[in-house]
Amino acid sequence: MLLGRTPFQSVLDRLDAENEEQADGEASSFSRIQGLGSGFAVEQPCLSVQSSRRPDQDYVDNLLDVMPAEAIDLEKPAEEPPAPQMPEHLNHITLEEIEAELAISAEDTVQSLGDKRRHFAKTNHPDSVHADFRPNATIRMTIANSLIDKALRRLAY
Fold first, then answer.
1. What is the pLDDT of residue 119?
2. How many other CB atoms are there within 10 angstroms of residue 79's CB atom?
3. Between 134-156 and 110-124, two packed helices, what is the crossing angle to 10 degrees?
4. Cα separation values, 156 from 65, 111, 143, 147, Å
5. For 49-94, where are the alpha helices, taking DSSP H only?
6. In whole angstroms, what is the distance from residue 119 CA to residue 87 CA?
7. In 2-133, alpha helices (H)
8. How many CB atoms are located within 10 Å of the residue 74 CB?
9. How would you class 2 by CB atoms within 10 Å of its CB: exposed for 0-12, middle for 13-18, buried for 19 or more?
């Protein structure tokens, strides 16, 4: 503490004294950078955004460094992908078809039934097929799981 004051109080007193000097019209004792009171952002003339401009045109300059200009056709509308085709196996949703596909026999073990379940789920699980085909996949998985669970219960006895 300087003469009974904290450094913070000394700085505040000095700032008050400088403000009083400037209010009286006297020059400040230190040089000050003009314009910093208004902020650092410089106002630019407003750049108008063209309403006909497409968002992907902003990246054309970068694309030209990588691709030849002839390969970039921004006026061509994007082609929609063709509608997905349902895999043939998802059309088989009857109990008999799925039972034949699983080929569960009396010789199956807990391990082999688990392998059959995993193998069947790889191609038929609803999360792994297109959204349009999920109802059929759900039916197939439900039937397959019930058949495998039934076989596992028979092994337990």
1. 96
2. 6
3. 180
4. 67, 13, 20, 15
5. 60-66
6. 16
7. 7-23, 60-66, 95-102, 110-124
8. 11
9. exposed
- Name the CA dihedral angle for 120, 122, 126, 132, rounded to a multiple of 10 degrees: -100
Considering 4-13, 41-50, 103-112, the range whose residues carry the highest mean pLDDT is: 103-112
Cα–Cα distance, 102 to 58 (Å, whole number): 54
Task: Classify residue 13 as exposed, middle or buried by CB count within 10 Å of its CB (0-12, 13-18, 19+).
Answer: exposed
Eight-class DSSP state of 132: G
Looking at every residue in the chain, the average pLDDT score rounds to 80
**Of 147, 151, 123, whose CA–CA distance to 136 is shortest?**
123
Q: What is the pLDDT of residue 151?
A: 95
